[in-house]
Amino acid sequence: MDLVRTRRRHLPDRPTISAPARARKPSAHRGRGLFAQQPGLGLAGLVLVVPVAVLVAVGAGGPEPSALVLGPLVTFALPAAAMIAFWWEDWPGSSLRPGWSGLLDTGLVIIAAILLAMLGQLVVGHVDLRGLFDPTPGPGHLPTYPATLPLAGAAFAAMLQLTLVCEGWPLRRLGRFTAGVAALVVSWAVALALYVVVVRVEAPPGSGVTAHSGPLSGAEVGAVLVVIGAWQVLLFVAWRGWPFAEWHHRWQRIVAGNVAVLGGGVLTFGVGYGLAGLPTSTITAVAGSFIAAGLVIGMLFEGWIRSRTGLFLAILLLAVALYALFTILADNLAWTMATPEQWVGHVVLTSIGISVVLHVGIARRWPFGTTDDESQTLERKEAP
Fold first, then answer.
1. Fewer CB atoms inside 10 Å of the end CB: C or N, the chain?
2. Domain presence at residue 212
3. What does residue 140 show for φ and ψ, rounded to 5 degrees?
């Protein structure tokens, strides 16, 4: 019965994160007690976010094995996390008490990550469980890194584009459960089409990867997607859809948003790669640092900085600090299969990204945030 009710419940016309300020309800992610306001609420969240980020960054036996194994798995997990956070609105965990809610949803994200990574292996070659979990699986086995990364990144970029930039239209007319599943399927369909048409795959002997032609290498496609992600985070997470969110006509908002995000991403990549001559790994690491900073400032410390200019400068400064810090750390480590900048990209994109999304978007800032009942009480008190 709970599944039936969830399927039938309708989503609002627009995602809350990009709705106009006057039409948006007070945030359900408020704190209580000592953490009632920012930046206290965000600083408290770091107590949980940082350990999770460290676990993903080095928890699979060190920095290099973690990048090779956890990097692809977490990237495949991100579309499922977005589905639960933005489409299912934390169901099925929302049916449980706080704490257990986040654990259940996180468990579902982990299961989805493994299944989707296996699907990714099937697309690029064949399913290989050893290649899924072993950073050095050996000849005849198919490692997920880097072969599956363009597919995983494309699925997540498409999910964010559909959810935030396209306002979930027209899928939001369906019930929460059906709409979320449909969004995940559509995102994967877009990723598959992009992989088949655009990505050039060169299969090393014994890798198990199926080679095919395309105009861009996997590294180039990955860098473009990360830069597009930086525009998505700036415009639709940090700036909450500005300047398009206030426009009355949906088609105008969607067209303008897509032009800004996709056009801005491709143009930025062209400047960095074509004019400045930056390597794709550097572009990925730099843009990934901006995404990580945008999620920290725009989600973890949501509402602390009111000015859009102030938000951009804060994100930019934090991005520079993150890139510099992790580059220094990476340059002092030994590498055999990955490169220092590839690990930096893994840390900022996957370890920091997933930890912030899990804490804020899925766990609803537990144990520092208010429960749904407490939030409703606060809304009634603030009502005129």
1. C
2. yes
3. 90, -10
Are the beta carbons of 165 and 257 closer than 8 angstroms? yes
- If one counts every other C-beta atom within 10 angstroms of the C-beta of residue 384, the result is 2
209 touches 142 (CB < 8 A): yes
Task: For residue 384, tell me if it sits in a domain.
Answer: no
Closest CA to 120 of 156, 173, 90: 156
pLDDT, one tens digit per residue, over 35-73 is 668 889 999 999 999 999 999 999 999 999 999 999 999
Asked if 40 and 31 touch (Cβ cutoff 8 Å), the reply is yes
Residue 4, domain member (yes or no): no
Judge whether residue 382 has pLDDT over 50.
no
Q: Is 138 exposed, middle or buried (0-12, 13-18, 19+ CB in 10 A)?
A: exposed
DSSP per residue, 280-294: HHHHHHHHHHHHHHH
By residue range, what is the domain housing residue 149?
29-366
Structure tokens at 134: 């072993």
| Rg, C-alpha atoms of the chain | 20
Q: Is omega for the bond preceding 243 within 30 degrees of 0, making it cis?
A: yes
Q: State pLDDT tens for residues 117-172.
A: 999 999 999 999 999 999 988 888 888 998 999 999 999 999 999 999 999 999 98
* Amino acid residing at 94: S
Q: Are 165 and 261 in contact (CB under 8 A)?
A: yes
101 Cβ neighbours under 8 A, 6+ residues apart: 90, 93, 94, 95, 363, 364, 366
Number of domains in the chain: 1
Position 194: which residue type?
L
Q: How many residues does the chain have?
A: 384
Q: What is the pTM assigned to this prediction?
A: 0.90
Q: Where are the alpha helices (DSSP H) in the chain?
A: 2-8, 40-58, 63-82, 100-124, 129-133, 149-160, 176-198, 218-233, 250-258, 264-269, 280-295, 308-331, 340-346, 352-356, 372-382
Residue 67 CB partners (closer than 8 Å, separation 6+): 145, 338, 342, 343, 346
Residue 9 resides in a domain = no
Q: Rounded CA gap, 281 and 179, in Å?
A: 35
Whole-angstrom CA distances from 235 to 153, 245, 269, 276 are 19, 10, 17, 24
